[in-house]
What we know:
Helix content: over 70%
Number of strands: 2
CATH architecture of the largest domain: Alpha Horseshoe
Shape: elongated
Structural class: mainly alpha
Order of helices and strands: HEHEHHHHHHHHHHHHHHHHHHHHHHH
Strand content: under 5%
CATH superfamily of the largest domain: Tetratricopeptide repeat domain
Amino acid sequence: MYRYIRFITVIAILFFLGSCTKDIFSIENRDKNIKNEDNFSKENIDKNYKKIDIKKYYLEDFFILSAYDLEAQNSYEEAREIYLNLFFKTNNSIYLVNYLRVSLLMNDYKSIVENSQKYYFDNIKDEEEILRLYSFALLNQKDFENALKYGLILVKKYKNSNNYELLGNIYLVKEDFKNSYESYLKANKYSNSASSIHALSGIEFFKFNQKDKAINRLQIAIKDKNYNYLLVLQALLFFDTLKDDEKVNNLLKDSYKFYLENNLFYEKQELINLIFERFKTEDKIIDYLVTNGIEDDFLLNLYISKGDKKNGLKLASKLYDINQIDDFLAYQAMFRYEIALEDNNLNNKELEDIIFMLEEVVETSSRALYQNYLAYILIDNDKDYLKGIALVKDALSQDPENYAYIDTLAWGEYKIKNCKKALELIKIVIEKVGLEDKEVKLHYEKIKECTKNDIR
């Protein structure tokens, strides 16, 4: 349970960071109020204070840009010092908020607490931001009672989803699940966010023994929230806890297809990691993907890894027909070449077709793998030595240490009878990989024999 609470707290930090940065860089001329160091008592927050005008500072724009630039370079200490100095120069509490926000990025909760207490201004927008940052910093300093105290003040004055979620997080860490649940429910009324749904379903499932309710909440939300990965992960956890393999596999399939169809690369990659973790072996993963009709570059890469050229060729051809992506055309050509070699069926027409496909690819793609593959075919099949050498040199300019590319160049130099150069190159390959590779050994023997007759 402790790990689950920690997980929800981490998620809360991510959502909280987002809420703290919202509209944070707008600079407005607003009236501000200064308080004493006790200004975080409830009585003081509710009072009216003496207003202080924002002052003009002639270097303000310069320092703002400097601070933004430092932030972009992750130079947080320097950036926040500029923000604090701008606050002193101008009385504009937006700079105090920026100071606190950057301190949060640095996990410097002590500075947030100290400076919130010391420099608080009573302004609707900035007051809410400062209170939220202050409560959150107290929570992370494990001052749970004060975090709760100011969290309650925050939601009394500013009722919204972010603030109720923060209050729910505070109650959750205190293991007050009833009040935590009620806070998340209130947050959910203001904004049906993935984070509040995640928290509500977690408490329902693990603490209230309302498993069906938790699962139903998630299943509705997953479709409504476009297969939000956080919610998918939660549902997978529930199904796995219940040992319901069928529901786990179905959700993996539906989520993967959604991410694939909607080009959600990050979510797809995270799900691939889960699939590897669940099915362990490439054979089981391939079986799962094929059974569920999942045909994409993930399955293609598994075929490549397994050396399954015939299924790889079928899939590469199908994917190219659908997407017209050069990578699939290249793999289609490479699979065809290797299958033809294995079957002793590399006739001239097949070879010309393969060369044509790869030439089409390298016209638009400078990927070294494709350049080298075409180069080797041109050289090894005596089609165009000079073009092959030029292509493999381009590949080597991208990856100078690649022994396969060096071997191709050595073979090209051999073919044009530049045997001494070829020997120099093949020796580099042998130093790296030895003579266990049959092709390298064959090239070495041919080149060595050639040097006996090379008088250049």
